[in-house]
Design goal:
- The complex is a heterotrimer of chains A (450), B (272) and C (359).
- Chain A is 28% helix and 19% strand.
- By secondary structure, chain A is α/β, with parallel strands linked by helices.
- In chain A, a hairpin with a 5-residue loop joins strand 7 (78-87) and strand 8.
- By secondary structure, chain B is α+β, with helices and mostly antiparallel strands.
- In chain B, a hairpin with a 2-residue loop joins strand 7 (228-231) and strand 8 (234-237).
- In chain B, the strands form 4 sheets. Chain B has a two-stranded antiparallel ribbon.
- Chain C is mainly α and 359 residues long.
- Chain C contains 15 helices and 3 strands.
- Chain C has helices spanning 39-61, 63-86, 97-107, 115-128, 143-154, 156-159, 179-191, 201-204, 207-212, 224-236, 243-262, 270-275, 279-286, 297-317, 324-341, and strands at residues 4-8, 14-18, 26-27.
- A two-stranded antiparallel ribbon of chain C has the order 1-2.
- Chain C starts with a strand and ends in an 18-residue tail after the last helix.
- The chains are: A alpha/beta (450), B alpha+beta (272), C mainly alpha (359).
- At the A-C interface, helix 8, strand 15, strand 16, strand 17 and helix 12 of A face strand 3 and helix 1 of C.
- Strand 2 (114-115) of chain B pairs parallel with strand 3 (26-27) of chain C.
Chain lengths: 450, 272, 359
Amino acid sequence: MNKSYQFYGGVHPAQQKLARKSAIAVAPLFPFYTVPLSMHIGAPAKPIVKIGDKVLRGQMIAEAGGFVSAPVHSPTSGTIKDIKPCLGVTGVKTPCFIIESDGEDKEYERMKPFSDWQEADPKKILSRIAEAGVVGMGGAAFPTAVKLSPPPGKKIDTLILNGIECEPCLTDDHRLMLEKAKEILIGIQISARILGVKTIILGIEKNKPDAVEVMTEQAKDLPITVFPLNVRYPQGAEKQLIFALTKRKVPTGGLPMDVGCVVQNVASAFAVYNAVYKGIPLYERVTTITGTPLVSPGNWHLRIGTSFADAIRLAGGVKEDPAKIISGGPMMGFSVYSLEIPITKNSSGILLMSPSEITQFQSKSCIHCGRCNDVCPMQLMPGILSTQIENECFDLSENWNVLNCLDCGCCSYICPAGRPLVQHMRRAKAEIMAKRKEAKKDTPKGKASK
Amino acid sequence: MFTPILILTAIGLFIAFAVAIIVRYFGMPEDPLKQQITDLMPGANCGGCGFAGCGAYATAMAEGKAKPGKCPSMNSENAAKIAELLGVTVEKSEPMVAIVCCSGDDNTASRNAFYNGVNNCRDAMQIDAGTKSCSYGCLGLGSCANACPFHAIEMTPQHLAVVHPELCTGCGKCVDTCPKNIIKLVPRSAKIHVFCSSPLRGAEKRKVCKSGCIGCQKCKKAAEEGQIEMNGSLAVINYENPPAAEIASQCPTHVLRSNETTPKKSKEETNE
Amino acid sequence: MTPEKTQKNSNSEERTIRMPDTSHLIVSSSPHFHAETDIRRIMLTVIIALLPACAAGVYYFGWRALWVLLVCSASCISFEAIFSCFMKRPSELDDASALVTGLLLGMNLPSSTPLGVCIFGSLVAIGIGKMIYGGIGSNPFNPALVGRVAMLIAFPKVMTTWPIPHGAATSSAITGATPLMVLGSLQHAAQSGQAGALQTLGEHVSYMNLYLGNIGGSLGETCIPALLIGGIFLIYMNIIRWQIPVFYILTVFCITGLAYMISPAYFAAPTFHIMSGGLMLGAFFMATDMVTTPVSRTGAIIFAVGCGVITGSIRLWGSYPEGVSFSILIMNAFTPLIDRYTAGEPFGAPKDKKRGLQF
C-alpha cells in the first residue's frame, strides 16, 4: 500500500501559492450578506423565511428542495432585506437572500452536538449532516449526505480524503490541514462510520511537506493512511485521485461509488466535524484570496454570502488594477466581472491576475503536435475534438467522447497554438445536453421514463 | 507501336460497353420530374423548408410527400412552375423576413467586461453568459452572419447584427443560431418593427443601453387599437394587424423604425 | 468609479484601501494559465537543431552549400508572404515555419543545385505543399518533401548530380555518387553474375567516411553525428516524439538486416543502410513534422514502422536508390487514417465493449 499509481496525462503549471504561509484569519462582520439559494448540485433550496424576518446566525433560512439538495443557513444575525436574483459566478442571476447584519451576530439555538459519535446511530448522524447543509467543498458542491448514503447494492470499501489541492495559487485546503488537522480527521472518521468503511486514505501532494508531516503525526494512532503523492495537475480530480491511490478506474459516466470509493475534500470533512461534533451548520468556509495585484494575499474564514468586494478589502485591496478576477483556481475557475458576486459553499478562492500575467487569446490552426493528447487525463483527443467542434459537428464529437471531458484545462494550458480547447469542449457539452433535453421533451412520457 | 494503341482501344471499348449494359439493365431510373424540380430550386440548401436541403425537398415534392411553396428563398415564378409540373396549386405563403430585435451597438449599449475568447456568439455564451450588460442584447460576434446562406446579415463596425431585407429570404437559420433568441421572422409586408427585446423596466434598461424601448407607450397611443401591445416595458407589434409606417416618428429612442437598410456593400468589402 | 475607498479597520485607524477597477476586466474561458511553449518557439528549436547538420554541409561542400540553404530559406519566406497576401490570410510568418521548410528543403538538395531550381522548389514546397491547403496545420504532406520530389521529377539530371565533398578521399573509386548509388551499381553487377561484387563495397565507401559524412549526397544528410546531435536535442526538448526516429531506423535496420542474413552476396549490411542516404535526416527531422504525422504515440509508432517498411522495400528492390522522401510522403497520406484508428478509449471505458467510432 505504499505505491502510488500514475494517472495518464496531466501538467505541471507554476504553483504560485502566495498565501501558503499566512494563517487562516477570522473575517470581521460585514453589513450585508448575499446568500444564494442554490449553492449545490441538485434542486435549489426552498426559502422558509420571508422578507423582513429577523434571523440569527446558523438559523436555517431555506430547506432542502429535494433529495439531492441542501438547506441554507444564515451567516449572521440580522434582517432578510430581500429575496431577489443576484449575479453568480457563471454570469447567471440566481435567487439570493440579502441579509442585513445587525452587528450583534447572535447565534441561533445550536443543534445538539454528537460528542459520542462513535456510539451514536449512523442514520441520525447522516440526517444531521443533511440538516447542516454540508456539501462537497472542493468544487462540484454535491450534497455530502447524499454522497454518504450510497444506494443499497453498492459496496463501499475505501474512503478517500482529498488533500491534494492541485489547483495552483489556492492554499485554503493546505492551511486547513495545518491548522485543523485533528478536526479534519474526526470529520473523516465520522464519514467512515456512516459508510461502515475501514480503509481511509488521505492523499496529499508532496508540495505541502508541512501538511504531510502534521497529518502523519495526527493520524499516527488512527486507522488512516497518509499518502504523499507526486505533484501533478489534475490529481485532485476524483477519478484521477482514485486511480492514483487505488488503481481503480471509475467507469465512464459512472461515479466513484461504482468502484467502491467515496472521495471527500478536507474542507468537507471539517464541515462534517463542525456539524456533527459541534452542531454548527455550514455557514462559513475557508477561502484563499490571492493574486499578485493584492496587497496582502491570505486565507480567511469567510461567511457564506460575503461579497467579493468585501473579501478583496480584507486582503488589503490592490496595488494595481487587475485584468482578471477569477472565482476558484486558475485552471478551472470562472473569470467574473463584478465584485458583487458572493462567496458560496464551494468558493475555494478568489484570484486576481495582473495585466502582465494574462495571455491574449489567439487561436491559430492546430499543428497536430499531439501535446493535448499526451496531457488529457481522460485520454481524449482534444485537438481533433476541437476541430470538429469548430465546424459544429457536435454529433461527431459526441462519438469521440467529448462528454467525458473534465474541463480540467490541461489541453488549453499546453497548446502551443493557443487554441481555446476548453471553451470548445464546453460549447459541445452544452449543445449536446441541450439536444438531449429537447429529445427527452419530445418523446412521450412512457418512453422518456425508460 | 500499334499494339499498345490497339490494346488500349479494345479495353476502352470493352469498358464502355460494360458500363452501357450495367446502366441499361441494372441502373436506377432517375425521375425526370425530380430533375426538373431540382433545376428550379434555388440551390442554397438553407433548410428553410424543413428538409435537409434543396435536393431532399425536390425529392419529397416529386414523390408527392411535400407540397410546393414551403421554400422561403424561391421566387413566385419558379414556385408557379413547380406547381404546374406537379399539377397542384401553389399555397400562397406570407413572405417572411428576419429582423434582429436589438439596437444596442457599442456606442449605445454597455458591456460588463471585455470578452477574450472564441469569436462566436454561442461560444461566448459559455463565459459569464455573454458580456453584454443587457441580457437581451446582441453579442455582436456574428454567428448569425456566418450562418446566413445568403450573406444577408451584416455586422456593423459597432458590433451589431443588421439584416438586409432585400437579401434575406426568411429561411430562419439565423433564428436558430442566435443564442440570445433575439432574431425573429416577421412578415415582409410589415413596415416598422421594434428593435429591442428586453421586457425589463425602462429605468433598468436605460442604465445599460441608451437605445432600448423605454416603454413610453407613445406608439401605442398613436397607433390604432390592437396594433401595438405592451409586454412589460416593451412595445410589441401585432403582425396580424401591423401599424402604419408613420407611427415610427413618435418613438423618442428611435427603436421603432423601418427595417430598411442602406444596400449592402459589395461582398468583398463586408467579408473583411 | 471610485477605486479609492476608505475603511476603518479594527484599530479604528483610517487607511485607504484601493479597490480594483472593474470597468476594464477581461473575461475568458478557463484555464487562465498557459504554458510558455508556442509554435514559434517550437520552430525556432527545430532551426537550432538543424544548424549542426547545416554547418557540416557547408564544411563538406563549401560555400556553395550555404548559398543553396540561404536561397531556399529566403525564397520560402518570401513565397509564404506572397501567398498569404494573395489569399488574404493573416500572415503567419512570425511563427518561423517557412524558415524550417526552407532549411529542410535546402538540406535535401545537392550543393550544386542551380539557384533558380532552388527557387522553383521553394515555390512548390510553400505554394503546393502548404499554402493551398490553408497554411500551417492544414497541409497533408510535408512541404519540404513535396518541393524536393517535385524538383526530382522536374530536374532529374540536376538532382542526381552529386558534387564531391572537399576533403573526400581521392581513393574513392566512384566519385560524385552517393553511397546508395554505388551500392545500386554493385548490386546490379552482383546480380549479373559478378560474384563478390558487393564485397568491394567497403573499398568504395569507407564506414568512417559514411559516418562522418565525407561522401557524396544531399548537403544536409551526410553527417550522421551532426544529425544525431540535433535529433537528440529535439527529443530532449520534447519537441519530437522519440518513437518516430527510433522505430523508423529500427525497422529499416531489421528489414535490410533480414535481407542481408538471407543473402549477403546481394544485399548490403544493415549498418550501411541506416548510415547512408537521407535516412537520419528523414527520421529525425522529416518524419517527425508534427502537422503531417499522427497525434497519438501509438499512431506515431505505426507511422514510423510504415515509413521504415517502405524505405526498406524501395532500397532493396526498387529501381530508385533512395526511398526516404517517398516513404514519408506515402505515410503522410495515411496519417488521418492512422489518427482515426488509434483514437484511444477514454479513461475508464469498459474494456469488453468495443466503441463504434463513426467517421
